[in-house]
Amino acid sequence: xxxxxxxxxxxxxxxxxxxxxxxxxxxxxxxxxxxxxxxxxxxxxxxxxxxxxxxxxxxxxxxxxxxxxxxxxxxxxxxxxxxxxxxxxxxxxxxxxxxxxxxxxxxxxxxxxxxxxxxxxxxxxxxxxxxxxxxxxxxxxxxxxxxxxxxxxxxxxxxxxxxxxxxxxxxxxxxxxxxxxxxxxxxxxxxxxxxxxxxxxxxxxxxxxxxxxxxxxxxxxxxxxxxxxxxxxxxxxxxxxxxxxxxxxxxxxxxxxxxxxxxxxxxxxxxxxxxxxxxxxxxxxxxxxxxxxxxxxxxxxxxxxxxxxxxxxxxxxxxxxxxxxxxxxxxxxxxxx
Length: 337
What we know:
Layout: H1 2-16, E1 20-40, E2 43-48, E3 52-57, E4 64-68, E5 80-81, E6 85-89, E7 95-101, E8 107-113, E9 120-127, E10 130-135, E11 144-149, E12 152-155, E13 166-167, E14 176-178, E15 182-186, E16 188-189, E17 193-198, E18 204-208, E19 218-226, E20 230-237, E21 248-251, E22 259-260, E23 272-275, E24 284-288, E25 291-295, E26 303-306, E27 311-316, E28 321-336
Antiparallel strand pairs: 1-2, 1-28, 2-3, 3-4, 5-6, 6-7, 7-8, 9-10, 10-11, 11-12, 13-16, 14-15, 15-17, 17-18, 19-20, 20-21, 21-22, 23-24, 24-25, 25-26, 27-28
């Protein structure tokens, strides 16, 4: 009976992780580090180092274009879009807020942050009229959210203080997520918490997490949400990438409380997490510098599906295809279920 039961469990486990990589193809090779992606008009759009911005046609990868937004060697780790334009902000000060028109790729600087401590970790549109950009705090440790509304950027007035040594990671432009009701921002470093903004009344709450934290390299690197309540957070310690304790967590109440998942039973440090469209939060892809991993049970268990290295960001194109980007490359991965 024990042998039969063990075989049954093995069979269930094999079927549970039957999803595999069908194919993986590099569609861009370039001297560039890419940490942000957007999908539009059957193309994957990216921004990266050396002031580079461009696209690759997903139907015909030979159709691609790249431009430089500045003669300076700016590092872009953010990218977002509305109906007519793309937007990106360089890390470090001065931070230039670029607008790139979709129609002709004409670009302009529409805002500049000259504060010496400016360091923009993520940029995210909640709808076609409003966006939020998150920067590391100034010397006063006040939460720094910049809001784009009616064509103008302005600081969101708030009284939220971050802890000393609490900041964020410009790892994949995904430490901000939103739903119809909320915007969430994940912090890391000496403290790793969740900041939740109510879009209806602009009230802000901050919630502690059980995530690994306490060192400048530790904490949440990426979050994603399904509707207003289910969320997944991943991260770890980029200086100890094989460490896998307390680096994945989920919430079922909109970020108010978090439960650690797969501690000690995952492939380690992750920089980006994305919920599969149509899966209602059940199926999730995550990437780290050393692996690509997948969960089919709301993040409770994980399977490493690829040892491909140097990917920092991923995005679902559809229910079977993922685009990944990182060090000197962009790739398409076809999955089978």
